[in-house]
Amino acid sequence: MNSALRREYLAALGLETWVVRGKSPLPSEAASPDAPAAREAPAPREVPASREVPASREVPAPREVPALRELAPRDSSAAREAGVDWPELRARVAACTRCALCNTRTQTVFGVGNQTADWLIVGEAPGAEEDRQGEPFVGRAGQLLNSMLRAIGLAREQVYIANVLKCRPPGNRDPSPGEAAECLPYLEQQIALLKPKIMLAVGRIAAQNLLRTDVTLGRLRQQVHRFGLSQVPLVVTYHPAYLLRTPTDKRKAWEDLKFAREVCARV
Ligand code: SF4
Fold first, then answer.
1. How far is CA 95 from the centre of its chain?
2. Is the per-residue pLDDT at 178 higher than 60?
C-alpha cells in the first residue's frame, strides 16, 4: 500500500499524521504504519515502551494468557456440527430455531469474507442494518472497521467477518448467556472450516463471550488469548461503533491492531 493511501486510512481512524513544530519527520516515519504511535501526544501510555518496536528490530514475543481464557470443549459444539461444509452450515444457520431470536430476526447474518482467510474478525451480534442486509459490520461502524483493517494492510475481502450471534437481539440489547451458548457452536464450526491464524474480537461483548469471562475489555487488550480446542490466538480490541462514539480511544485500537499484526506474523 502506498503511503498516501495508508495515511488516508489512518486519518479515518483519527490518527492523522502530524509532526513536532520545527522538526521534520524522517521519510520512513511519514510512510510507516507505526508512525502515528511514534508521534503520539505525550499522554500516559498503557502499553510499556518496550512493546513499541522499530520495524528494523525484532518484535518481542507477545505475552500470552493461556489458561484463564480457554474455551472448554462442549459436546454441543464440534460434535453437533461435525462434518458440515460451508453451504451446509449456512443452510443450518438460516433455518435455526435454537433460541427465541429466530422469532424476531429479518434474516440470519451468517458471516462474510474469504473462506481461506488468516484473519477472523468477530463482533457480538447483528444490528438493525445488518439484520436488514444480512451482512455483518455494514453502515458507519462497518466502514470504520474497513479502515481499521486497511491501516494494517488488509482489505475487507481478505478477512472473514462474523458475529457471536447470527440473529439480531431486539432493540440491540446485549445477547443473553443462553443465546450465546446456543449460537456459539456455529461460530466454532466456522472456525473449524476457516482455520484462521488469528481471531480479532471486537468489543467487550464479543470478547467476554468468546473468552467466557467478565474481565473488562481494558484488561483483555494487549494479550494473546487462545480460543477453543484449536487454540487459535485471539486478540481483543474495541468495537468500531464504540470508537465512533469515543474517538479518543482510536489510538488504543490502533495499538491493538499493530499488536494483532505482530501476533499473526509469528503464527
Ligand atoms: S441467534 Fe443463533 S441460536 Fe439463536 S436462532 Fe439465531 S442462529 Fe439460532
1. 26
2. yes
Ligand 1 surroundings by CB, under 6 angstroms: 93, 96-99, 101-102, 108, 165-167, 179, 182-183
Average pLDDT, the chain: 80
pLDDT given at position 52: 34
CA-closest residue to ligand 1 atom 1: 167
- Of all protein residues, the one whose alpha carbon is nearest to atom 2 of ligand 1 is 183
Judge residue 245's burial from the number of C-beta atoms within 10 Å of its C-beta, 0-12 exposed, 13-18 middle, 19 or more buried: exposed
Spell out the alpha helix ranges (H) of 101-239: 128-133, 139-151, 177-194, 204-211, 217-220
CA angle 106, 192, 72 (to 5 degrees): 95
What is the C-alpha to C-alpha distance for residues 204 and 208, in angstroms, rounded to an integer? 6
Which long-range CB contacts under 8 A does 77-85 form with residues at least 24 apart?
Answer: 77/184, 77/185, 77/188, 77/189, 77/228, 78/185, 78/188, 78/189, 78/192, 78/229, 80/185, 81/185, 81/186, 81/188, 81/189, 81/192, 84/189, 85/193
What pairs with residue 112 in β-bridges? 161
Q: Which residue's CA is the nearest one to ligand 1's atom 4?
A: 99
59 contacts 266 by C-beta, under 8 angstroms: yes
Which pLDDT value is given to residue 3?
63
Its pTM stands at 0.76
Task: Say yes or no to pLDDT of 134 above 50.
Answer: yes
Probe residue for ligand 1, chosen from 90, 179, 184, 189 as the CB with the greatest number of ligand atoms within 8 Å: 179
Distance (Å, rounded) from C-alpha 117 to C-alpha 115? 6
